[in-house]
Write a structure and sequence with these properties.
27% strand; DNA-binding; alpha+beta; 5 helices; ten-stranded antiparallel sheet; 3-methyladenine DNA Glycosylase, Chain A
Length: 221
Amino acid sequence: MRILTKNFYNRPTLEVARDLVGKHLVRVLDDGTRLAGRIVETEAYTQDDPAFHGWGLLDRRTGALKPEGRGRDLFGKPGTAYVYLTYGVHWLMNVVTEPEGTGGGVLLRAVEPLQGLASMYARRARAQRDIDLANGPGKLAQAFGIDGALHNTPFTEPPLYATDPEGEAPLAVETSSRIGITRGVDLPWRFYAADNPYVSRGAPSDVAQARKRRAKQGAMA
DNA sequence: ACGAGGATGCTCT
DNA sequence: GAGCATCCTCGTG
C-alpha cells in the first residue's frame, strides 16, 4: 500500500478525480485507531467552473489572484486537505489538485468502509448498516472523524492520506453530472464505481432540476 | 416510495 | 438577507 504523494495530485483535476476512485482513504485518529475505506465516488471542481468555491477569485484578464476569500486555499499546494462546513452542519472533505497557483479540488463523496467500522458506527449514531456509514460527503467526514481541524493539513501523510491498493483489480468508473449544485450542473464531473452499493444516493443535479421542472409544469396544469 | 422542510454557521451581496 | 458541493425526519400515497 503506497501512500499517494504530492505528484499524484499535481495533475489536471479531472484525472485526479477519476484516478482516486478505487484508492483507499486512511485516517488515523488521535487515539491511534486506524480507519480505512475504498473511495467509490468523487467530484471534480476546477477554477474554470462556476460551482467552484472562490469562482471569481481569479481575474481572468490579468491573471491576478485575490489574496482572501472562500476557496483561496484551493489554489494552494496539491495534496492538501480542503475541509469546509456546509449548511452550517456538515463537514466536506476535498483534496487540492493542480500546481500551486492553479485552482482545483476533488470532493470525496463516498467510501466503502474496510477497517475501523466500530469506530465509525460510534460517530455515525444513526447508521444501521455498513452502507449508511459513508455513502455521502457529510457522512464520510463524520465516519472518518474529519472536521475543520484538518483543513489545510497535508493529505499525504498520517493522520490523513490515500493509498494505492496494489493488487486490487481496478474498478469500472462511470460519470455523471455532479450532485447538489445549482451552477455548472451539466458538467459530467462526478466519478463513481459502477454497480457499487456504497455510492451515495443523491441524484445528479441535471436530473434533479429536470424533475423539478416537470413537477412545476404538472402543478400548473 | 417520495417529497417537503428544518437544522445551523459561514461567506458573499 | 440569501444561499449553500447535506442529512435526517416526518408527512402523504
